[in-house]
């Protein structure tokens, strides 16, 4: 399986939706909580080309984007191949 990192905050509905989709796909992911962590959020923003909102999702080190981007990738049929690439 691919290595998935997702930067989140606990109460973010988009974070919850993104994690739900990944869980439905059977994908394990590392959740990085940046709530109350300015340094963690800064590191996330640097990795995510300046994006400061959560979630920010990375698959095998590649920035996928946020929740809407993840769902769009899935709708286009691009998510499953990325998840299987690390297998």
UniProtKB/TrEMBL annotation:
<dbReference type="InterPro" id="IPR014025">
    <property type="entry name" value="Glutaredoxin_subgr"/>
</dbReference>
<comment type="function">
    <text>Has a glutathione-disulfide oxidoreductase activity in the presence of NADPH and glutathione reductase. Reduces low molecular weight disulfides and proteins.</text>
</comment>
<dbReference type="InterPro" id="IPR011767">
    <property type="entry name" value="GLR_AS"/>
</dbReference>
<dbReference type="InterPro" id="IPR002109">
    <property type="entry name" value="Glutaredoxin"/>
</dbReference>
<feature type="domain" description="Glutaredoxin">
    <location>
        <begin position="4"/>
        <end position="64"/>
    </location>
</feature>
<comment type="similarity">
    <text>Belongs to the glutaredoxin family.</text>
</comment>
<keyword id="KW-0813">Transport</keyword>
<protein>
    <recommendedName>
        <fullName>Glutaredoxin</fullName>
    </recommendedName>
</protein>
<dbReference type="Pfam" id="PF00462">
    <property type="entry name" value="Glutaredoxin"/>
</dbReference>
<keyword id="KW-0249">Electron transport</keyword>
<dbReference type="InterPro" id="IPR011900">
    <property type="entry name" value="GRX_bact"/>
</dbReference>
<keyword id="KW-1015">Disulfide bond</keyword>
<keyword id="KW-0963">Cytoplasm</keyword>
<keyword id="KW-0676">Redox-active center</keyword>
<dbReference type="InterPro" id="IPR036249">
    <property type="entry name" value="Thioredoxin-like_sf"/>
</dbReference>
């Amino acid at each position: 399986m691919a290595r998935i990192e997702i930067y989140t905050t606990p109460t973010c509905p988009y974070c919850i939706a993104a994690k739900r989709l990944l869980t439905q796909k059977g994908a394990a992911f590392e959740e990085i909580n940046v709530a109350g962590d300015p340094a963690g959020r800064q590191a996330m923003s640097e990795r995510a080309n300046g994006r400061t909102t959560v979630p920010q999702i990375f698959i095998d080190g590649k920035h996928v984007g946020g929740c809407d981007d993840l769902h769009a990738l899935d709708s286009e049929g691009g998510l499953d191949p990325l998840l299987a690439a690390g297998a």
